[in-house]
Write a structure and sequence with these properties.
alpha+beta; 38% strand; Immunoglobulin-like; C8orf32 fold; 308 residues; eight-stranded antiparallel beta sheet
Length: 308
């Protein structure tokens, strides 16, 4: 599937800002199921842009605007080609892989960093208890992953505006609502609590509202950045699953990058000199086909979270 993506962020300041330095992670990666065909970055006012690959393998665009300005717009455009992802349930050699394989010392050593608690995905007792209860009596490696995946999806209802970035996941779980990064952080905590290596994935999802899992009726839609999980399966590799929608990541999931949690793949962060007051407007659009098929997006009239 060929998909065109445009990510736009606009900052407005009531007074002048200067020496603005921002770090952008919006460029889709290339891997075995996804190929980046085109990527362009436009910044207004004129900026110095330096690009590098971070420790997690994600492209980072560092944007520096030295002159005084009252508005900063960052527009990233990309075209990618995706293909279906393999399903480990269909791998004959995994049929007899037991959950004990997660505890093999060599496997744990290779995935140590994705077994640790983090600021956004710690181990509150309630989260650990739910994870352990969900897998009680299960012996197969894939059974364990499927059970945690289902548990996360059933524990939360998708409801924007009910949580905030940095909120304790124990409180998120108790509240029973959240957005996709909440599903992912709860999922990371549950998987890691039972010894399953898991990592946070940031990207785009070509679906209505990013929550239904349904193919859009129209070719061009407005979306928001999305998040899902990749878990390491012994003897197979990383398996991408989407707990918000309770499905396996597929051709409509476009990966930007991965890390330990949200902080490692935050779409845009920065610092500047000037007033602390600012207004941030974010919009993401996706289209089937070529990038030229996607018209310019209007800037939203209300501030939105960058990740839903």
């Amino acid at each position: 599937m060929r998909l065109a993506i445009r990510y736009v962020s606009r900052f407005r300041y009531p007074e002048f800002a200067w020496d603005s330095h921002n770090v952008l992670r919006a460029c889709p990666t290339s891997d075995t199921t996804q190929r980046l065909l085109d990527y362009r970055l436009d910044v207004e006012p004129a900026a110095r842009v330096v690009t590098h690959i971070d420790a997690w393998g994600t492209r980072v665009d560092e944007i520096h605007v030295r002159d005084r300005h009252q508005e900063l717009q960052v527009a990233a455009r990309a075209t990618v080609e995706t293909s279906p992802r393999a399903d480990p349930h269909e791998a004959a050699d995994l049929a007899g892989t037991g959950a004990r394989a997660f505890a093999e010392p060599s496997f744990r050593d290779d995935h140590w960093v994705y077994l640790q608690g983090t600021r956004h995905a710690g181990r509150p007792p309630a989260v650990v208890d739910q994870a352990q209860e969900a897998i009680r009596g299960l012996e197969g490696a894939l059974e364990v992953v499927d059970a945690i995946h289902a548990q996360v999806h059933e524990s939360l209802a998708y409801r924007p505006g009910t949580t905030y970035i940095g909120q304790d996941i124990g409180a998120v779980l108790a509240g029973g609502t959240g957005v996709c990064q909440d599903f992912v952080h709860v999922g990371l905590a549950m998987f890691r609590a039972v010894g399953v290596p898991a990592r946070y994935v940031s990207g785009y999802f070509y679906a209505v509202d990013g929550t239904e899992g349904a193919m859009p009726h129209d070719a061009e839609i407005s979306v928001q950045t999305h998040a899902w999980v990749e878990v390491a399966i012994p003897g197979w590799g990383w398996w991408a699953i989407d707990p918000t929608n309770h499905l396996m990541a597929g051709e409509r999931h476009v990966k930007i990058g991965h890390g330990r949690d949200y902080d490692d793949v935050l779409p845009l962060r920065g610092v500047y000199y000037g007033t602390s007051d600012q207004h941030l407007f974010v919009e993401v659009g996706m289209s089937r086909g070529e990038l030229s098929a996607l018209p310019p997006l209007g800037i939203l009239e209300q501030a939105q979270q960058q990740q839903q």
